[in-house]
Write a structure and sequence with these properties.
With 425 residues, the chain is α/β, with parallel strands linked by helices. It has 10 helices and 19 strands.
Length: 425
């Protein structure tokens, strides 16, 4: 194949499953058929479910592609087809290169073996030689952060510790194609950030990435292209922001439809503890702009964040938290309505709340705003899916010759001196 040929070709692929079919061998099928006949066809024939219908995409070397959509959209089915865990009903799939699938980290671990032994065991399962694992053993342990527990049996590890160990081993494979399916959801924030940095390093080396996650921040941080799937079909394919925008628009449209139809939370839901009932409010859009509507903000100028909402009933006391995050996920600022003594009362219907920052004080870079809805005490999140703004750009002085060490905000500073030693502080 030529140098510009796709490393993954996924052309007009469909995948069907037979619901209610428990055996696929010829003797098993015969027994199931005979059983239905003897029971007078009391048991309905298996029904066909199309998990994917006519899905196509290409992936070139070094590209990163996100698969997003609700549960049951077909995202994991695509990864299983690429991994040859299952086979397509129709269509063609071609993979040109070494593939590593992080679909269930640590699936080859043994609970009675230590972390040290499991590193060698899992590395062998992933196709690494014992010598290669031994050569990179210290790097694997350092990446996992589990030095103190490496000789402890795995059954005493938490699920998060097992994910750390599994990703640390898998990251040493250095594949041509990396498939990642929600495996980073268990790890803590600092470890997730290290995993994202490792994925970025693999991409710079030419690894192609297909990434599945419900965490849309991570999708934006990892991927440049996206496919939004719904019920096995492609709803939108294009840039990551375009695919995410289409997905969120459909979510808001469905919730707006329920609102227009007059759907109210049930009495049982109204009495449920905060955070367990149907969310009473949706943040439908978050916008960030300058004083004159500017899309590019200036560090020492004001900025305005607007939170557009739909409230499904009158809300007398909730709280809002606004996070501003840098393009690597670092939280640069957190503004909470409760701490600012701003009581949020929302009448049933649609509206907006404005947050003014004057001045902005962020250094040059790319950012987005994220909104969280909490209860009256500001102790429990009552809206699990956070609303996010589009990426916005800030221009100003970068306080470092290396952008990687530019910190996150630009304080107003005044220098003075020198002064003689011995003066009062």
């Amino acid at each position: 194949m030529s140098a510009v040929s796709p490393i993954v070709q996924f052309h007009h692929v469909s995948k069907a499953y037979r619901l209610g079919l428990t055996r696929t061998s010829l003797p098993g099928l015969a027994r199931q058929f005979a059983g239905r006949v003897l029971r007078g066809r009391a048991t309905a024939a298996p029904r066909t479910l199309w998990a994917l219908e006519d899905v196509s995409f290409d992936l070139h070397r070094g590209e990163s592609l996100a698969l997003i959509g609700p549960n049951g959209a077909g995202k994991s089915t695509i990864l299983k087809l690429l991994s040859h865990i299952t086979w397509p009903t129709r269509g063609d799939i071609h993979v040109d290169g070494r593939l590593c699938a992080l679909l269930e980290l640590g699936a080859g671990f043994h609970p009675d073996l230590t972390g040290r032994d499991n590193i060698f065991l899992n590395g062998t399962i992933l196709g690494l030689s014992r010598a290669h694992v031994a050569q990179r053993f210290d790097e694997i342990v350092d990446f996992s952060g589990l030095e103190a527990f490496i000789d402890t049996p795995l059954k005493r590890y938490s699920s998060g510790m097992q994910v750390r160990l599994g990703f640390a081993v898998a990251a040493c494979v250095e594949p041509d194609i990396l498939l990642v399916d929600e495996v980073l959801a268990v790890g803590d924030a600092s470890f997730r950030q290290r995993c994202l940095q490792r994925i970025a390093a693999l991409r710079r080396q030419g690894t192609s990435v297909i990434f599945v996650s419900h965490n849309l921040y991570m999708v934006q941080a990892v991927c440049t292209r996206g496919i939004y799937l719904q019920a096995g079909r492609v709803r939108r394919a294009g840039g990551t922001a375009e695919a995410i925008g289409a997905y969120e628009l459909d979510l808001h449209a469905e919730r707006a439809r329920r609102f227009d139809d007059g759907d109210e939370p049930s009495a049982a839901a109204a009495e449920a503890p905060p955070g367990l009932e149907e969310p009473a409010v949706d943040i439908t859009q978050v916008t960030v702009h300058g004083p004159a509507g500017d899309e590019v903000l200036v560090s020492d100028q004001p900025a305005r964040i607007r939170l557009h909402y739909t409230a499904y009933r009158d809300l007398d006391a909730i709280n809002l938290a606004v996070f501003i995050r840098r393009d690597d996920g670092v939280a640069c600022s957190m503004i909470r309505s409760k701490l600012d003594n701003f009581r949020v009362r929302l009448p049933r219907g649609q509206g907006r709340i404005t947050l003014d920052l004057s001045p902005l004080q962020l250094v040059t870079g790319s950012y987005f705003a994220e909104v969280e809805v909490t209860d009256e005490a500001d102790t429990m999140v009552i809206k699990q899916d956070k609303a996010r703004s589009e990426w916005f750009l800030v221009r100003g002085r970068t306080r470092s010759y290396d952008p990687a060490f530019a910190a996150v905000f630009e304080p107003f500073a005044r220098w003075s001196g020198p002064e003689p030693a011995g003066l009062e502080p």
